[in-house]
Amino acid sequence: MAVEPLIFDLASPGRRAIRMPEPDVPETALPAGMARESLAWPEVSEIDVIRHFTRLSQKNHAIDINFYPLGSCTMKYNPKVNEAVARYPGFAGIHPYQPEATVQGAMELMSELQAMLAEISGFHAVTLQPAAGAHGELTGVLIIRDFHADRGDTARNTILVPDSAHGTNPATAVMAGFKVETVPSNSRGNVDIKALRPMLGPHIAGLMITNPNTLGLWDEGIDEVIGLVHEAGGLVYNDGANFNAILGIARPGDLGIDVMHFNLHKTFSTPHGGGGPGSGPVGVRAGLEDYLPGPRVRTIAEDTGPRYEWFMPERSIGRLHSFHGNFGMHVRAYTYIRMHGAAGLRRVSEDAVLAANYLKSQLSDDYVVPYDRSCMHEFVASASRQKANGVKAVDIAKRLLDFGIHPPTTYFPLVVPECLMMEPTETESIETLDSFVVAMKQIARESAETPEIVRSAPHTTAFKRFDEAGANRRLNLRWEPEHSQVVPSESVIGEVERILEAVPAD
Ligand SMILES: Cc1ncc(COP(=O)(O)O)c(C=O)c1O
């Protein structure tokens, strides 16, 4: 492999990629000590910069490069029209401090998006404020907490979480101050009702269920689960991150769910960032809307047409985000929903479910499929057969990289050993699905005949296997060559202190 120069190696004094225009204001010297004395910027030409970053961009897998069946993440294609609309100056150039009268269009979009999400899910009211799915969960659980507290029902200190729930669910419940008890699944991957019954009682604040669950299965006993929790005085939270499976087919609000979050970045094709910027709107049934975070947008009918204004719901749990959430994501999701329409959204889910069932049937001779029933938009397989030859789920995942395919999610959910969780999404062609099947079958064959090839994969990527735990625990996003370590000088620190002292106390 050719050794690729780092951008610092490409540097040569005097090379540059930009030219600043002549200043059109008088030049002023920086206050003494404010200029950094040493800053080792790489001085590089435009073409070297372009090549450097283009090379880097190709080292990472992306949905725009190839198939990305990362279960639970719904890595569907994000249509470029979303981006075009989000960049309209009327959306991209506004500021949340602007007076209401000047951002009526943006408020109208938010109001319509709330209404569309409410219609699609069967909920009474929706907030767009939370910035991610887990943030939506926190919003929902805080609503459940305040709902019970307002009724003086303060003994309800426990949230039940099935073992097939997403890992963020128990974490959220704990963050909101609750104890967590785990409800086991039965052999069909549903909540085990027999186990659930004795766990219910006056200490239960609610149950957080992921439905469809992380096994890619619709809970066949969902009606009974909801009924039992309600009978015990608890509320039911649905982790709606897997909503991509049921658009236009089932509405959680109609099932009796009390609170649910959506992941706009999964279901409604807004980009997944590294931890954001996402969007996790929350829907609630009638009677809980006063608890939603604010400020919320509402419509006032006037003779000249509707006017939009912000308001704080009466019993609001408070603000969950500065201003109004990730507005750019709202624009993208709105565009996606309007582009598809009701029939198109239903088709999205039908195709997502069809693609997952197709892959499951194609791979079930080669891999153990622990829950042999129709799946929703994703399914889990196990590498337990391959493990007998010393090939683990992680090895299969790494080997897929040699085929230019992003691996499925591995080792999650925890209830399946050597788990491979695959979610093809609705946006892939049959040819792409088939090429994935060919790769997975070849890996199954290799695991039986030449397991070392799989165990030592990947063979074609720029880097091999990483210290993943180390990368997580000792994250360093600011690598710099030693000579460019920048330490603010005493004079800079002194100058900043002097400026701060000069700021009036009020
Ligand atoms: C089922 C489920 N719940 C919750 C989450 C958490 O969402 P986020 O990553 O946006 O916080 C995810 C993320 O993929 C998920 O798949």
Number of helices: 17
Approximate strand percentage = 5-15%
Major sheet size, sense and barrel closure: 7 strands, mixed
Uncertain runs with pLDDT below 50, 5 residues or more? none
Q: The CATH topology of the largest domain, please?
A: Aspartate Aminotransferase, domain 2
CA-to-CA gap between the ends? 61 Å
Shape: globular
What assembly state would you assign to the polypeptide chains in this entry? single chain
The distinct bound ligands, ions and cofactors come out as: pyridoxal-5'-phosphate
Which CATH architecture of the largest domain would you pick? 3-Layer(aba) Sandwich
What class would the helix/strand composition place it in? alpha/beta
SSE series? HHHHEHEHEHEHEHEHEEEHEHHEEHHHH
Key terms:
3-stranded antiparallel beta sheet; Aspartate Aminotransferase, domain 2; 17 helices; 11% strand; 7-stranded mixed beta sheet; binds pyridoxal-5'-phosphate; alpha/beta; Aspartate Aminotransferase, domain 1; globular; 506 residues
